Amino acid sequence: MLINIKIAAGLLIVISMTGAIVFAEELKPVELSAPQMDRGKLLMQALKERQSNRDFSDKELPLDVISNLLWAASGVNRPDSGKLTAPTAKNWQEIDIYVAMQKGLYLYNPKKHILEPVVAKDIREFTGLQGFTAGAPLDLIYVVDYSRTDGDEKDGGYYSGVDTGFVSQNVYLFCASEGLATVVLGSIDKPTLAKIMNLRKDQKIILTQPVGYPGSK
């Protein structure tokens, strides 16, 4: 068990029950570059090459690739209206994308196109029951926020699954275009992961989706 002591000089200082002091770098917001519209394969070629791949290299993804990936997943493509690349029922925009990386967990803010810090901990191993999630450089976690669904959790539960499918397919097509590996996962210990992520009761995990360069297999 760790007890928070203080934050100083950009470091989170904690002490364990055994008395050992541990230092972890404090997470800060990550500014993402503007999406690059002049790269990638033709849509029909990306559709032809779309596939699930469970073999990941541990090579980190460059920040520009992460930026393009998140914008493709569910970024703002019509600034005048704030609408996204992925449709949602009644324009609820109820699907949040959390990004788990080695240095910590972030929440993608599509309006500002930034990564907002959530937890300064590597939680990738908890994003699926399969061992490869811990090795993929980036794991996307799709979370529905029922507070944005007009309070209708029954309809919200149905539509949130559909809306998550739109986002995950955008990710599949982006990965096919960029030569990246990805797969959608439903086998997750959702209660444990939700607790680690400090989710509210009206937030529910739908699916996860690791992304990375293909492994050597």
Summarize it.
With 217 residues, the protein is an alpha+beta fold. It has helices spanning 43-49, 63-74, 153-178, 190-196, and strands at residues 2-8, 11-16, 21-25, 30-31, 76-78, 83-84, 95-101, 104-109, 114-119, 138-145, 181-182, 203-212.
Describe the protein in words:
The protein has 217 residues and is an alpha+beta fold. The protein has two domains: 1-28; 32-212, 3-Layer(aba) Sandwich (NADH Oxidase), CATH 3.40.109. Helices cover 24% and strands 29% of the residues. The protein is built from four helices and twelve strands. It has a seven-stranded antiparallel β-sheet, sandwiched between helices. A three-stranded antiparallel β-sheet has the order 1-2-3, with no helix packed on it. Strand 5 (76-78) and strand 6 form a beta hairpin. Helix 1 (43-49) crosses helix 3. The protein is globular. It starts with a strand and ends in a 5-residue tail after the last strand. Residues 1-24 have low confidence and may be disordered.
Task: Provide key terms for this protein.
globular; NADH Oxidase; alpha+beta; 4 helices; 24% helix
In total, the number of strands is 12
The CATH C-level class name of the largest domain: Alpha Beta
CATH architecture annotation name of the largest domain: 3-Layer(aba) Sandwich
Largest sheet: 7 strands, antiparallel
Strand arrangement across the biggest beta sheet: 4-9-8-7-10-12-11
> What count of domains describes the coordinates?
2
N to C succession of SSEs: EEEEHHEEEEEEHEHE
What is the arithmetic mean of pLDDT?
89
**Number of helical regions:** 4
Distance separating the two termini: 38 Å
